[in-house]
Amino acid sequence: MKINTFKSKFILSSIVLLSLTLTACSKKQESKETVKDDPRKKEVVVYSYDSFVGEWGPGPELEKLFEQKTGLDLVFVDCGDAVQAYNRAVLEKDAVQADVIVGIDNNLADKARASGILEPYTPKDAVSNTSSTVASFAQSALGNDGLLTAYDYGHFAMIYDSESSVPAPSSLEDLTKDIYKKKIILMDGRTSTPGLGFVAWTLAVYGDDYESYWKALAPNILTMTSGWSEGWGMFQNGEAPLCISYTTSPAYCVEYEDTDRYKTLVFDQGHVLQVEGYGLLKDAPNPDGAKLFMDFLISKEAQEVLPLTQWMYPVNPNVEMPESYKTAAPIPDKTLSVDSAKVNSALEKVSDILLGS
After folding, report:
1. In whole angstroms, what separates CA 269 from the centre of its chain?
2. Structure pTM?
3. CA 135 – CA 253 distance, rounded (Å)
4. pLDDT tens, position by position, 262-274
5. How far is CA 98 from the centre of its chain?
6. From the CA atom positions of the chain, what is the Rg in Å?
């Protein structure tokens, strides 16, 4: 199948973005039984994203463990990407359908907080004077008002196909060179947190000059997908030698595909950290069940599922990391940060630049 040009695909994404937001969510699993009184009280509905709830994500195992532990029916709803899950929750806030939302990261947190979709709840043992189950630096990235709780984290990075015909870039600036024309796969920051994270990365490195950087980068973007799964799939199919993802992504290939073909590129400029969080939706139909799930997600039992399914670092410091992380998931020496309000403002300008390229 031929790939659409970057510009035409981005324009199409712009036109259909609202309709995708409205229709992308689909229930992953229906309730297993009907309860006479109020079946909704036996069901916990969680808005999530494709890589979390998919066959190889943590969703299926978390569902099994939670249901065994509580007797409740856990229903994950696949909303495409995390930004789409957020958009869905905002559209439904006057008629709330879900109980919990997962995937609100540090670049989206302030926007989610201001939207009024969240209700404060701090999971059991999340913060303790003796043995907190959430690393303090991760929680600080999302705020300490109880609206969001961190469950995993990781650095964004460019992933390189070492069997490609082009050399590996050593900086963000290198990505603008002619040799990488149509060689880069990105995600749309309006629908994808990795896409938003890449915008944050360029803003952290270039400051007020980020617009000039994006103008130089635009000719080298092969496509900008709506979500991470689509982009990563194209990358592994050999559509382009460079893809925005996480430092941990090649560890998956080592663990399950027995290949070290894909490499994390660590840039001296530093890398932006993503912290993913989850929260109780305001006016949730089943707040008691939601709180049980929120307590569960940061437990050692649940957090041990994440490294080899979510491919992010769990926030629970008691979880031992697998060997593949030690060999194929380098940790950057320098971590960058940027104000999320500036990121969301920059996203609008980046979108305008790409539409005009």
Report:
1. 22
2. 0.86
3. 27
4. 999 999 999 999 9
5. 19
6. 20
The strand pair at 335-336 and 271-281 is best described as parallel
Report yes or no: 76 and 70 within 8 Å, Cβ to Cβ.
no
Crossing angle, helix 287-297 and helix 59-70, to 10 degrees? 120
d(CA 101, CA 104) in angstroms, rounded, equals 8
Reduced to 3 states (helix: H, G, I; strand: E, B; else coil), residue 178 is helix
Burial class (CB in 10 A: 0-12, 13-18, 19+), 61: middle
Computed from CA positions of residues 183, 188, 194, 196, in that sequence, does the dihedral angle turn out positive or negative?
positive
Beta strands (DSSP E) in 117-200 are 118-119, 149-161, 184-187
Residue 184 and residue 175 in contact, taking contact as beta carbons nearer than 8 Å: yes
Tokens 């990407």, residue located: 81
173: its two tokens: 């600036």
β-partners of residue 304 are none
Q: Which amino acid is at 191?
A: T
Token pair of 56, please? 């190889």
Q: Which DSSP letter does residue 185 get?
A: E
Give, for 244, the enclosing helix (H) or strand (E).
Answer: strand 242-246
Q: Specify whether the CB–CB gap between 270 and 246 falls below 8 A.
A: no
Is the model's pLDDT at 294 over the cut of 60? yes
**SS3 category, 257:** coil
How many CA atoms, within 13 angstroms, populate the side-chain half-sphere of residue 8?
4
Q: How many helical (H) and strand (E) elements, i.e. helices and strands, does the chain have?
A: 14, 13
Distance between CA atoms of 281 and 287, rounded to whole angstroms? 8
Residue 135 is predicted with a pLDDT of 87
**303 near 315, Cβ under 8 Å?**
yes
Contact between 46 and 79 under an 8 Å Cβ cutoff? The reply is: no
Q: What is the spatial distance between Cα 273 and Cα 281, in angstroms, rounded to a whole number? A: 25
| Per-residue pLDDT tens over the stretch 209-267 | 999 999 999 999 999 999 999 999 999 999 999 999 999 999 999 999 999 999 999 99
Tokens 């789409």 label which residue? 84
